[in-house]
Design a protein that fits this description.
globular, 591 residues, Rossmann fold, 14 helices, alpha+beta, 5 domains, Elongation Factor Tu (Ef-tu), domain 3, 6-stranded antiparallel barrel, 6-stranded mixed sheet
């Protein structure tokens, strides 16, 4: 029999234990398991009290003005509600709000621009006692929702910016009109290109007296971003975040770019939720928390989550304004409470069937983390990763001693690319290999090539920790030779069908389990059970697929040689006719 009680905040650990009819020690242990250190007289807010109650086997039902907590019995668990949104059918894909990331150099006005877009200040949007540092926000324009992700601009946050670009459908590159393209601006552009996201440039601070838009247009063009105003295809919007200038135009451009790429900006809200971690923190009162961006599916309160190697349950969810949520659909940023540990920014998350499956997968991933080194691409394992279907291109960070060396190397490397695989040069610059280069390589799974340069010790240490390969050369042709050998392994192999045997259909049988089965006589060669097969009728190929069953009398056999009879069933084909020819063949690599 279930029991119910009402909780209202604030209440102490002792008061909560009395309400739950359990010992204060049990409540304190549950709090410790959530990462919250509390004594018996410490006051708990309502959210924490609810989380503890759930952790101790209670479920929560809201009622005004308080929350009703019911103890649920095992037999009341009910059916698997996740089955309602597991469909992966194409017809379930629906348009979703675009996810836009804001990138650029420090102090070029990214956060101020976001403030202007949201028509408010960050400090004015803090609700429910939760300080909003989640770095993700939603706004409405023309009745349509746009999700924004803010990313830090300082060089130390290179990896975070890379994750931001990867999680975005559209990237907004902020460039100050009075400052122009700076090192982190170029770095952010590298990440945008590595992510393959369409870009819009917001030329900010145009109201400054020393603003020089023409100079910035020239710098953008030199970086490959030719404005629409100068015959290019890159939207450049002149903005002043402080004055609110150009904000509506920027939002209009975002919606236009979204419409251009609308076939890609879709999701299935009926499936289990998947997405990425924007950031994770430890709250002294609520324990481990994470801001998640739902990229596909719908995340519901109570869902069991695996986030990287961290297990947890969505005990409570809040939107970017601190409002409590019951569910969050695609492109929605949501803050989640109820995790066993703090996940890393950029980790993937997904909803699991139940807590048991979540914990098991969490332990497996932790074991791999403890025993395995970071899995990064190297020239030696390019071919192996290609065979596994993990790579179709080789990302490269190229550093040289002088700018004059870069052009011939870049041209030669690009000549090595072909239609099937290519070398993508994410960054090319003169100077030693730095930590920033390693950060970009780690975030983009790239190889670092150096010509006539060295890597400093911090860069080498970081490369070792991140599993990034650094290759140094003093002779250009040696570098090109190594890359060519790697690309030869990356080429898609060419296969041709080689016929192993031919059988003629002499009679057609119908079996209750197999359906139509062909009684055949092998004309030449051998018919092999684990081969592919073609059905030829009057010189026309009717069907091509897998051979399902091969029998001699009542026994399954591996092969049947020429001159013998056999029974053949094909996977997906039953329209046999007397006189059909069944060819057994395999695909053989010829190059």
């Amino acid at each position: 029999m279930s029991k119910s009680i009402e909780l209202s905040a604030p209440l102490t650990v002792r008061e909560l234990s009395e309400q739950l009819e359990t010992s204060p020690i049990s409540v304190i242990k549950a709090l410790m398991g959530m990462g919250v250190m509390a004594n018996i007289n410490q006051t708990l807010d309502l959210d924490t009290a609810i989380l503890v109650s759930e952790e101790m086997g209670f479920t929560i039902r809201e009622s005004e003005p308080a929350f009703v907590v019911e103890e649920i019995q095992a037999e009341d668990a009910g059916p698997d509600r996740l089955a309602l949104y597991r469909s992966e059918a194409t017809e379930t894909l629906q348009p979703r709000p675009p996810v836009v990331t804001i990138l650029g150099h420090v102090d070029h006005g990214k956060t101020t621009l976001l403030d202007a877009i949201r028509q408010t200040r960050i400090v004015d949007t803090e609700h429910g006692g939760i300080t909003q540092h989640i770095g993700a926000y939603q706004v409405e324009k023309q009745g349509r929702i746009i999700t924004f992700i803010d990313t830090p601009g300082h060089e130390a946050f290179t990896a975070m910016r890379a994750r931001g670009a990867r999680g975005a459908d559209i990237a907004v590159l902020v460039v100050a009109a009075d400052d122009g393209m700076m090192p982190q601006t170029h770095e952010a552009l590298d990440h945008i290109r590595a992510a393959g996201a369409p870009v819009i440039v917001a030329m900010n601070k145009v109201d400054r007296e020393n603003a020089n838009a023409d100079r910035v247009y020239g710098q953008l063009a030199a970086a490959g971003l030719v404005s629409e105003a100068y015959g290019g295809d890159i939207p450049v919007v002149l903005t002043s975040a402080l004055r609110g200038q150009g904000i509506d135009e920027l939002l209009d451009y975002i919606l236009i770019v979204n419409d251009i790429h609308q076939t890609d900006i879709v999701a299935n809200p009926l499936r289990r939720a998947q997405g990425v971690v924007i950031e994770g923190v430890v709250d002294p009162k609520r324990g481990s928390m994470a801001t998640l961006l739902v990229q596909n599916g719908t995340l519901k309160q109570g869902d069991s989550l695996i986030i990287g190697s961290v297990a947890g349950r969505a005990r409570a969810m809040f939107d970017w304004q601190g409002n409590r949520l019951k569910e969050a659909g695609p492109s929605t940023p949501v803050q989640v409470l109820g995790l066993q540990d703090v996940p890393r920014a950029g980790d993937r998350f997904e909803v699991m069937d139940n807590d048991k499956a979540t914990r098991a997968l969490s332990e497996q991933r932790k074991e791999r983390q403890d025993t395995g080194a970071p899995a990064r691409i190297t020239l030696e394992d390019v071919y192996r990763q290609l065979q596994a279907g993990n790579v179709k291109s080789l990302n490269v960070i190229l550093k040289a001693d002088v700018n004059g060396s870069l052009e011939p190397i870049v041209n030669s490397l690009e000549d090595l690319s072909n239609e099937e695989v290519e070398i993508k040069i994410l960054r090319q610059s003169a100077g030693y290999i730095s930590e920033g280069d390693i950060m970009l390589a780690a975030a983009s799974n790239a190889v670092v090539l150096g010509f006539g340069v060295e890597a400093d010790k911090p860069a080498r240490d970081m490369a070792e920790a991140e599993g990034v390969e650094i290759r140094l050369y003093n002779i250009i042709y040696k570098m090109l030779e190594d890359m060519e050998l790697a690309l030869k392994g990356m080429l898609e192999p060419v296969y041709e069908p080689v016929t192993q045997g031919r059988a003629e259909v002499r009679q057609v049988f119908r079996l209750s389990r197999k359906g139509q089965v062909a009684g055949c006589y092998v004309l030449d060669g051998k018919i092999l059970r684990n081969s592919r097969a073609r059905v030829i009728r009057q010189r026309d190929a009717l069907w091509d697929g897998e051979l399902d069953t091969l029998r001699r009398f009542q026994e399954d056999v591996r092969e049947v040689a020429s001159g013998f009879e056999c029974g053949i069933a094909l996977e997906g084909f039953q329209d046999f006719q007397t006189g059909d020819i069944i060819e057994s063949y395999t695909m053989v690599r010829v190059s």
